[in-house]
Amino acid sequence: MAQGEVMLENLTGLVVFAKVVEEGGFSKAASSLGISKSSVSKQVSALEDHLGTRLLNRTTRRFSLTESGTLLYERCQRIVAEVDAAEREAGSLQSNPSGRLRVTTGMSFGRLHLAKVLPDFLFEYPDLSVDLVLNDRRVDLVEEGYDVALRIGKLEDSSLIARKLCPSNQVTVASPGYLSKRGEPKHPDELAGHEHLAYSYHNEGLSWTYRTEGKAHQVRIEPRIFANNGDAILTMAEQGAGIAQMPTFIAADSIRAGRLKPILREFEMAPYNLYALYPHARNLPLKVRVFVDFLRRRFRSEPDWDRDVVG
Fold it and tell me: How far apart are alpha carbons 40 and 17 in whole angstroms?
């Protein structure tokens, strides 16, 4: 038997032993614990065998504590009290969201959007705190100890649970200055010969996907600049460094201000979504559930960053 199994079995024996003493007998202890009288007797005998000492002097009608049993019972009272307190605390986390929530998402989305709504979330749930880590690298939730990751794009096959929060539309953009010098492409095939700015972590590599006549159409690109951060690509596109394909949650303000112009708008781009990812659906911690539900309410099916930009 593994060491952990032995420890668990001994802990069970201690709880049963303490209940026998508290209830004044094996039958009452069995009824209180919801197990058979024979199971109670076996647990106590196994505990005595493990300790190598008798804990109870038994007769057919009564029992009495030995000296060892008296000493152990004093310890057991504290152990059982700690176990009860731990169970109450663990249960309270599922009735009242509390504790620390570890969240990770990309730099741009975290800075531009998640950081704006987190204060409202914490106001709604005052017993929660958040540890937010912004990182464009795909982290390992389980290995690195995160409760939730917010990710955008096409998800790789995974054992993680993914819950869609809202669409994340893509747009092809360039600065008015760049387009006046190089011309504006009217068809995806005309992207050839232009300067391209590409995201290093893009799942599809060196191609952009559009839909023409109801069919997917991949266009090969030759980026002059790669960057692993959307904000950096945005700045370079605004400065006229080339054409970029990027999410509206990054580009929307620049489009509205006229610093970037959407192009190829009649060609639908590959759809993306914003997802909340977490390790398990069974017995999902309440703090994770309320956080995901909050984000769904705030971002909705038509997020604010798409207003006046998509359509």
Answer: 8
Q: Name the band, by pLDDT with cuts 50, 70 and 90, for residue 93.
A: very low
Complete DSSP assignment for 226-281: EES-HHHHHHHHHTTS-EEEEEHHHHHHHHHHTSSEEE-TTSEEPP-EEEEEES-S
Q: What is the token pair recorded at 217?
A: 């159409």
Residue 118 lies in a domain: yes
- 311 found inside a domain: no
Tell me whether residue 191 is in a domain. Answer: yes
Question: Is the confidence at residue 2, as pLDDT, over 50?
Answer: no
pLDDT bucket at 88, cuts 50 / 70 / 90 = low
- Are residues 154 and 179 located together in one domain of the fold? no
Which CATH number goes with the domain that contains 36?
1.10.10.10
Q: Give the SS3 label for residue 208.
A: strand
- In angstroms, the CA 34 to CA 233 distance is 64
Q: Tell me, what's the pLDDT at 150? A: 92
- One domain for residues 179 and 235: yes
Domain that holds residue 124: 99-166+273-306
Mean pLDDT estimate for the chain = 82
